[in-house]
Every structure is written in C-alpha cells, then in structure tokens.
Amino acid sequence: MRRGLMGLVVLSTGLLFGCFSRMVSMPGHSYEGPAATPDARLEAQLRADVTQLAAGFGERNVYNAPEALERSAVWLTQRLTSLGYVVKEEAFDVGERTVKNLIVEKAGSTLTSELIVIGAHYDTAHGTPGADDNGSGVAVGLALAEYAMKRTPARTVRFVFFTNEEPPFFRTAGMGSEVNAKASRARGDDVKAMLALETMGCFTDAPDSQHYPWPFSAAYPSTGNFIAFVGDTDSRELVREAVRVFREKAKVPSEGAALPAFVEGADWSDHGPYWRQGYRALMVTDTAPFRNPHYHRATDVPATVDFRRLALTAEGLVAVLDSLSN
C-alpha cells in the first residue's frame, strides 16, 4: 500500500510538472544583449500619443469623465484618418450614454476573409490619467496601424480601439471588447488571432520588482524588464508563435505563458471576451499591477513610461504582425 501510494505521488507530481512546463515553455531565447536604441521617430511618436491621451485628455471614462472620453475618441478618429483609414464606429449604449469602439481595417490581398485583430482600450480607470494603462497600448496600436497601412498583408488586419475595458464594465456586457467579440462571432468572422495591447510601458531593472500569482515566480524573472505574452491554454500555439517571432527580432526581453483562464490576471484585458467567443487571443503586457506601482493611480503619468523600451517592443511587434498576417 505504501509503495502504491508513493508511486501515485510520483506520478501526480510528474503530471503537474508536465502541465506547468507546457504552460511556460516558450521557443527561442529572451533578449540579453546591451541596451538598444529604437527608431527615434517611432519613440517620439509614441511619447506624443501617450502624452496627448494622459496629459491632454487625462482621465477618460463614462461616469467620471465622459467629455474626455469623447474627445479622445474624436482625436483617435482623426489620427487614424490621417493614416489613410476609414473609421467605423461600433456604438452601443450603457445606461443613458452612447459609447463606441473605433474600427479600421487594412484589407488582405489573398486571404481577405481571414482576420488578425489588434486591439487596445482607450478608456481609463477612475481617478487616473492612464499613461501606461492604457495610453501605452493605444500608442503602440496606432504605430502598428501606421505600419500596416504601408504594407500589403495576405490576411486582413483589423485594428479596434475599445472603450469600457475598465471597471465597472470589465467582464460585463457593457465592456467594449465584449460587444465587439460577440458581434464578430455573430457575423461569423474568421478571426485567426487577436492581440490585446495592454499596459506596455513600465520597465524596471530594479531587483525583486516583478511579482506573480502563485506558483509562477518559480518560472519567471524577478526583475520587471520584460514584455509578456499571455494567452489561455487553447491559444498556446498562438502565444508560442508570437514569442518565437518576437524573440527573433526584438531587442527587449520577453516572456510567454499559456495559462488556464482562471489564473489571476490571465484575462485582465480585451482578449478575454475573444476567448469566451472561441477565438485564439493573447495579451501583450508589462504585467500591470504585478510590476507597476502607479497602476490605477493618479500617478500613472507619461513621466513613468519607459518610451525607449516601449518603442523596442513596438518594433518587435511589427515582426509578429507580419508573421501572423502573412
């Protein structure tokens, strides 16, 4: 009996280790070279866009700052139009107010009906100007949209700037990405991959600056100087492909994980609604509250954003976009 029990323990431990390894094992090697210098124009544009959102508009949400939310939507429309896109508004009501997601597309050349979706939310939590959360994600989304407009992808690339990601709408029917993902499923959209750009500008080389939900501290660095790719278990191959391509091109450290959706933080952005509609999706993030002391605070201002490494991240994501859309 004792031998059988010991065998069961060993077998169970092996299975658990195997499952854990499958979640965190990623191809390639995280960047370990010297500090790199990104394209100066890209870095300057990212800084300008984040500054406009966080300092120009400040807090932007339905209940505390609806006028700023609307002004930021108008500004985003103008920015996207200046890049050559025709902006479609996906309007919906929350209470007595009408809000909107903003959608643009770069049509594919040969696989036109197949979609790659790049999304970022432009609203903020109450009481915060949202430079990192999520001015950084919006700025990178705009940079990728500018890049895509100059290319001819095989698959159609759809960029969506969501509203209402933050509480009290998070994980509710009033969340912008929930509205968008449900509409995609209702139309039968063939979404091959969705990337949510979420809080991407906080990097630090300070020891013990990175934290994780248990038990992932055993598998990842304790210094918060990397960008993370987070998907659910059904999106494992998408995560691995994105990490592989990113690591081949990017000059900023990176980590990846394909986690059960119930793990704390795994669905904390606009990719979650796409999971619930059966699509493969992942989040690109600096891990937000697991690293950034300014998360959901009034101190989330442009001065706290590392624009150099944000630009290096954007350069790596250009390669990921090319790979997925072709």
Based on the model shown, name its key terms.
326 residues, 8 helices, globular, eight-stranded mixed β-sheet, alpha/beta, Aminopeptidase, 8 strands, single chain
What topology emerges from the helices and strands here?
Blueprint: H1 2-24, H2 40-57, H3 66-82, E1 88-94, E2 97-106, E3 111-121, H4 131-149, E4 155-162, H5 176-187, E5 190-198, E6 227-232, H6 236-249, E7 254-259, H7 272-276, E8 281-285, H8 307-325
Helix pairs in contact: 2-4, 2-8, 4-8, 6-8
Give the helix level as a range of percent. Answer: 25-40%
Round the Cα radius of gyration to an integer and report it. 20 Å
Series of secondary-structure elements, N-terminal to C-terminal:
HHHEEEHEHEEHEHEH
Calculate the mean pLDDT score and round it: 94
Overall 3D shape: globular
What is the assigned CATH homologous superfamily?
Zn peptidases
The CATH architecture category equals 3-Layer(aba) Sandwich
Count of helix runs:
8
The biggest beta sheet is recorded as: 8 strands, mixed
In the CATH scheme, the class would be Alpha Beta
Number of folding domains? 1
Going across the biggest sheet, name each strand in turn: 1-2-4-3-5-8-6-7
> Helix- and strand-based class?
alpha/beta
Low-confidence stretches: 5-17
What fraction of the residues are assigned to beta strands by DSSP?
15-25%
Instruction: Give the strand tally.
Output: 8
- Remind me, CATH topology? Aminopeptidase
Q: Could you give the distance between the termini?
A: 57 Å
